[in-house]
Amino acid sequence: MRWLTLYLRSRRAPMALAVAAGCAGLMWSLWAIFSKDRQVAPQMVVLTVLLLVSILTLTLSSPDYALDRTAALSWPPRRAAHLLAALLIVVGSLVLTRYTAAHFGPASVLLRDAAGLLGLTALGASLLTPARSWFLPLGWTLIAVLFPRTETVADQLLTWQSQAPDNRPAVLLALLLALAGLVTYALAGPSRRATADLPA
Amino acid sequence: MTRVLGIELRRSTAIGAALILLAVGVALLYLFDEGDWSTGWMQLAMTQRLYLGLLWPLALAAGAWQGRREHQAKVTELFASTARPRSHRTVPTMLALAVAVAGAYLLMTVAGGVSLLGTAHYLPPQALTVVAVGLLSLVAAAWIGLAAGRALPWLVTAPALAVAGLGLLLTIPGATRPRGWLALVFSPIYEMNMPDAYTTVPGRISAAQAIWLGALAVTGMLLFASRGWRSRVTALLAVTVGVILAVTVMPHRNRQVVDSVDPVAKALVCAADEPRVCVSRVHQGLLPDVVPQAREALTVLTRLPGAPTRVNEDNSTYLSDVPAPRSPDVALVRIRTGRTADLTAQIVVAAFERPYDCDNGPDFEDSLAAGFWLIGEPPVHEDPDTTAGARLRWQQLRALPAAQAKAEVAAIRQSALTCR
């Protein structure tokens, strides 16, 4: 338990969780106050998931990467657990809105987008650096929110974040990204070019 | 100063931000058909403004990412202890980022313009204004981002700011309803979608938008470049004055861009020799493509008594309802860039069509049949039901003796002309 506490503190997890809760609360209250409809608009759902994922994945950055690597710990399961916990927090917190004045849903979309975006961000953390890991997910998701396309399979893959819940290509791509991100990040860890970054 | 600026360009996020903006912008222009900008420069400029919906939040994020550099490198206190004004250090950073995002936007215009070079001969000055306002909006976004990154130097700031920026752009139209002119002041992308051939953005609208965006840029600049409460108060003043001025300059009417018509773009331009073939100035570059087909159509039509002897583009506008002038000796035809392959048949059929504001003339299927009877081919139309109906009518015409069929066709034309 002490190790877990120390780990979470070194990654600024309490701060990230507080900011994520604040952002989720802000989105929730914006919708609850300004809209008559209980069901939150799909664009807002996708943007909220993106925001929570980008906030929580900033906890992947460590105060000292070189020191982390020298530790005699088996990192892969810990890294995987870190990502899965982030997924659980994003999906769990938004699923809980089901019985409130602003319902973020459906759950399948939450799960698909959170998993896909987390995988993409984890890939970014391994290939770029954790501090830059939000670049691609942010750009891609903003495109998908603004200009959703549904005609061909290529269009559906290009804007997978904002497809309907039952869209098979989108689900498959999200699954692929999630698995690729999870495996790459768990095994390889953050990019070796990552310098100590103030994660706050 | 130039040396410092060069170093800033190389060592800051400027180049990276510019490349990302340029790549995203060009991909949007060529991969997404949200706006059809093949007609001309104005349409390209407006479509670029529509795509600011994505580029604007990205510029905010780039600014915020750059704004936390001193905090990230832990040199804030060290730099604060040097006996030089803060602006000496911050102005090059701001200029580098502004040059980068503005350059990316201009290169995006150039990348789109390359495919217009052959056909678009008409460059209205308003198109340049529309591009300039787009540039200003990106610079304002980058500088506001810098100020936000300096005030909240966390990694979270940049993505959160981008999401907030997009959210703002998406909610402005709904929040200002029913006062659409307010949305036009504050949102650089409002009413920029689906520009038609004669659309323009009146100068006063661009002026009001430029005032607001300029005020925003000045605010970002003051908050980032200097310190102390004086600059914060000045920044607040700048934004307030900007809002008041922009709201004053903007005409208080809705749907100003959607309903606007550029009379110069709409004016007819004619090919040199007889028979006369005229298109609107926007489509002037298509004349070499249109003229041979139009003259071929006129040759086909000579078999009619009282046949049209000239071809004009049908430059009717519907939102401010101005129909194109009609007369018996002119055949009117709709012209769209990229769809000028089969104009001959369209012009021949147009000679038999009733005007759109007339309820009694011949059915469209009759007009199709009559036109294609003259051409001597079975009718084709994009709608299969219409094609089937027209073919039936066409076969009836073919079954008649030649003189009788000709009389029927002439009657269809007469009925279209007189609307009876």
Summarize the structure.
Chain A: The chain crosses the membrane at residues 12-34, 40-60, 81-101, 170-188. The complex is a heterodimer of chains A (200) and B (420). With 200 residues, chain A is an all-alpha fold.
Element layout with pairings:
The complex is a heterodimer of chains A (200) and B (420).
Chain A: H1 2-10, H2 13-34, H3 42-56, H4 65-70, H5 75-95, H6 107-127, H7 135-146, H8 153-158, H9 168-188
Chain B: H1 2-11, H2 14-31, H3 41-67, H4 69-72, H5 76-80, H6 86-114, H7 125-151, H8 157-176, H9 180-186, H10 203-225, H11 229-249, H12 263-266, E1 268-270, E2 277-280, H13 287-301, E3 310-313, E4 330-333, H14 343-350, H15 364-375, H16 384-399, H17 402-418
Helix pairs in contact in B: 1-6, 2-3, 2-6, 3-6, 3-7, 3-8, 6-7, 7-10, 8-9, 10-11, 13-14, 14-15, 15-16, 15-17
Keywords (chain B): Membrane, Transmembrane, Transmembrane helix
Transmembrane segments (chain B): 12-32, 44-65, 94-117, 123-144, 151-172, 205-226, 233-250
Transmembrane segments (chain A): 12-34, 40-60, 81-101, 170-188
Describe the protein in words.
- The complex is a heterodimer of chains A (200) and B (420).
- Helix content of chain A is 66%, strand content 0%.
- Chain A has 9 helices and no strands.
- Chain A starts with a helix and ends in a 12-residue tail after the last helix.
- The longest helix of chain A has 22 residues.
- By secondary structure, chain A is mainly alpha-helical.
- Chain A has one domain.
- Chain B is mostly helical and 420 residues long.
- Chain B has a 4-stranded mixed β-sheet, with helices on one face.
- Chain B starts with a helix and ends with a helix.
- In chain B, helix 1 crosses helix 6.
- Chain B folds into 2 domains: 249 residues, no CATH class; 151 residues, no CATH class.
- Chains A and B meet through helix 2, helix 3 and helix 7 of A and helix 2, helix 3 and helix 8 of B.
